[in-house]
Amino acid sequence: MAKRLYEVWKGKNKFIFRGRLIFGPDAKSLIITLLLIIVPVIIFCTNVARNLFDETSGNIAGYAILMVTVVFTIYVLLLLLLTSARDPGIVPRNLHPPTEEICYDSSASIDVGRQTPTPRLPPTKEVIVNGVPVRVKYCITCQLYRPPRCSHCSVCDNCVERFDHHCPWVGQCIGMRNYRSFFLFISSSTILCIFIFGMSALNIKFLTNDYGTVWKAIKESPLSVVLMVYCFIFLWFVGGLTCFHLYLIGTNQVWHDAKTVSTRRTDNKKTTYETFRYRGVERPQVYDRGCLNNFREVFCSKIKPSRNNFHAYVQENERGFTRGMNSEGYIGNLDGNRREKVEDDREIGGDLLKISQRREAEDA
Predict the structure, then answer these.
(1) Greater confidence, 346 or 124?
(2) Which terminus of the chain has fewer CB atoms gathered within 10 Å of its CB, N or C?
(3) In this predicted structure, what is the pLDDT of residue 104?
(4) How much is the pTM?
(5) Burial class of residue 284, CB neighbours in 10 A (0-12, 13-18, 19+)
(6) Which of 156, 167, 173, 231 is catalytic?
């Protein structure tokens, strides 16, 4: 009996509704995130908003405060769902790994003083992005050369395009297909914190006018102060994260790129050749199109469809693997010059013949 793709998926993801929704392996952390959002909102609506409704004598302002809180909370929860339950841009594992390239192996030799050419894959390839050479790495797990700005998430065990980071609060990787909803989620959460903080402070002000002192107002509505403290603390977290990602969007970086550049700038062990040969590699200037175009790329571009149909059936010979393009489909002509070194090197013809005969014998 044929199985669906999500049933034989080799990553660590969790699926519901027959693969229509995909989560990370730490999806249980969503429960904590939901409680951190819903519980304060319920306290606000049942206590602070009700007091403000009484203070405004039931006019339109009281209704507006309650409605804005409820509608905006639903909007934040919807963004959370879009971020955590969507394919972040997983690159399918390669069903047809690239052929091995003949390279020199210094660990073994046939004749004294000569290195033995052995078939193996180079760990990196070089592609041109906006006129700048960028090295892409070979992923042993997914058996493909990763596209530029792609990284393998150790938590989900998948290669993710434009990988930003794995967020434990949403239980999902943040990548090309859910970065927009993630940013809108944290920015909307920041606005919600500011709104609840402001309305709680307004409630204290009204109670101070009624009871004469701030202390009596606090005793009358202690939950208002609790909400103000709660929102102030979390405002530093989500507000700071929002500002940081505004910077990343404006410079067309991702969190992973920024950490990589920071690490490389403090690495004094690079050789002079590496410093000059690969200067500018995977740095923000490679992808930076200007602040306006960078924001337009994130918020106005169409989200690409998923490369994986987790609900689809898998053929018998594909069971245990994921459908998808091979590495040539992502990188283009990465392997176009794969054999140049072999063709140009005439001194190892005899050794190549030996290797070819040995491989034919093994295949037989």
Answers:
(1) 124
(2) N
(3) 52
(4) 0.76
(5) middle
(6) 167
